[in-house]
Design a protein that fits this description.
The complex is a heterodimer of chains A (about 110) and B (about 110). Chain A is an all-beta fold and about 110 residues long. Chain A contains no helices and 11 strands. In chain A, the strands form 2 sheets. In chain A, strands 2, 4, 5, 6, 9, 10 and 11 form a 7-stranded mixed β-sheet that branches. In chain A, strand 4 and strand 5 form a beta hairpin. Chain A is globular and about 35 Å long. Chain B has no helices and 11 strands. Chain B starts with a strand and ends with a strand. The chains are: A mainly beta (about 110), B mainly beta (about 110). At the A-B interface, strand 4, strand 5, strand 9 and strand 10 of A face strand 6, strand 9 and strand 10 of B.
Chain lengths: ~110, ~110
């Protein structure tokens, strides 16, 4: 079947606007992870879910960032009042179970002007 | 804090030469370690994990607990190996901690 998909692939927004990034995991995958990758750096963990339960949000940089996965499938990462420093590639990954191989989506490149 | 260090941002070798991409991790028990690869215009994907002890595309990686290293090696590099390589360790809940990445460039 299809791999992990993310939308939009590219998002340009103005400072102060809210953005919502979507991740559609592989069907049946229990765990879903969000990472952020700045230019020249490796991905950094943001948060993860098992089914619909958010298990760990320790990587979210501040309270402008939130994520949900209400039905245990699609997840949305929301950034409120965006700032230029939020510009990065946002990556989503899913795994069949916690600790299993993570399959990554293509990422969403966010640019905040 | 758990850390993964990849000291080289860029590694350039000629086709057929041996290649070693370095990775060191901060010590903590028995880590689960991985190498991920991103080829041009493709998504990040798992190359190998130490627990499987496999050789993938000719690459191997040995966990050295004494040196806290997990270097990725290939005896004869190919042009199609050119990519970004990320070393990662698994933390609680399966979340991954990545190194900064090493860009491997294999010249003809």
């Amino acid at each position: 079947g299809a791999g992990v998909s993310q939308s939009p692939r590219y998002k340009v927004t103005k400072r102060g606007q809210d953005v919502a990034l979507r991740c559609d995991p592989i069907s049946g995958h229990v765990s879903l992870y969000w990472y952020r990758q700045a230019l020249g750096q490796g991905p950094e963990f943001l948060t993860y879910f098992n089914y619909e339960a958010q298990q760990d949000k320790s990587g979210l940089p501040n309270d402008r960032f939130s994520a949900e996965r209400p039905e245990g499938s699609i997840s949305t990462l929301t950034i409120q009042r965006t700032e230029q420093r939020d510009s990065a590639m946002y990556r989503c990954a899913s795994s069949q179970q916690q600790g299993g191989e993570q399959f990554f989506g293509p990422g969403t490149r966010l640019t905040v002007l | 804090a758990q850390r993964v260090t990849q000291p080289e941002k860029l590694l350039s070798v000629f086709k057929g030469a041996p290649v070693e991409l370095k990775c060191n991790y901060s010590y903590s028990g028995s880590p689960e370690l991985f190498w991920y690869v991103q080829y041009s215009r493709q998504r990040l994907q798992l190359l190998l994990r130490h627990i499987s002890r496999e050789s993938i595309k000719g690459f191997t990686a040995d966990l050295n607990k004494g040196e806290t290293s997990f270097h990725l090696k290939k005896p004869f590099a190919q042009e199609e190996d050119s990519a970004m390589y990320y070393c990662a360790r698994e933390n609680q809940g399966g979340k991954l901690i990545f190194g900064q990445g090493t860009e491997l460039s294999v010249k003809p």
